[in-house]
Amino acid sequence: MIKKLFIIILGLMCVVMVKPVKKANASSSKFITIETSKGNVVIETLPKIAPNHVKRIKELVKQGFYDGIIFHRVIEGFMAQTGDPDGNGTGGSGKSLKAEFSDYKYKYGTVGMARSMNPDSGDSQFFICFNGCSHLTGQYTVWGQVISGMETVENLAVGEPPRNPDKMISVRLGKK
Q1: Which residues have CB under 8 Å from 87's CB, separation 6+?
Q2: Cis check: omega of the bond before 161, within 30 degrees of 0
Q3: Residue 20 has pLDDT above 50, yes or no
Q4: Which residue(s) pair with 45 in the sheet?
Q5: Angle CA 39–114–128, to nearest 5
């Protein structure tokens, strides 16, 4: 009887002490994969720097908001901009975010939130830096860093807007 009770108590202690393993799913992923007409781009999100922007971008990705949207502004040596459903730089999702400026240095592959003159006007548009963005540090919210596919971004059609713009075919959470 005592032996049986001991085994039951030991079994219960094991159940209580073992933490359940949390499965990673796409919505908790810190990566976003953009399939473009020129290839894939993988962005690591930076929620410690811009938690509200990362949360909003992920919401838009889950809704399929970015699927089919063109790169409407690509300036060689500076940046490639997308995220406007109207395709002309004036549209958005309809929800502006309060700026989350940081001292994260804009460099090759940094992803920042586009905005108007109002610092708190970032919505759905974002840009991926080439080499000429360092002056934007502390003035535009950084929410990600490209970890693969910058050669794809470098090969996007140039222009404001480009004559034949490239587009985001699909945007998904996670690495592909």
Answers
A1: 69, 70, 72, 161, 165
A2: yes
A3: no
A4: 144
A5: 30
Q: Is the Cβ–Cβ distance between 147 and 58 less than 8 Å?
A: no
Q: How far is CA 122 from CA 31, 54, 112, in A?
A: 20, 12, 10
Cα gap 72→1, rounded to integer Å: 76
Q: Cα separation of 44 and 148, whole Å?
A: 9
The residue with tokens 């002490």 is 17
pLDDT in tens, 107-163: 999 999 999 999 999 999 999 999 889 999 999 999 999 999 999 999 999 999 999
At 36-82, the pLDDT tens digits run 999 999 999 999 999 999 999 999 999 999 999 999 999 999 999 99
Helix (H, G, I), strand (E, B) or coil at 168: strand
- What does the block give as tokens for 130? 């080439």
Residue range 28-173, CATH number: 2.40.100.10
Instruction: Tokens for 97, please give them.
Output: 């975010």
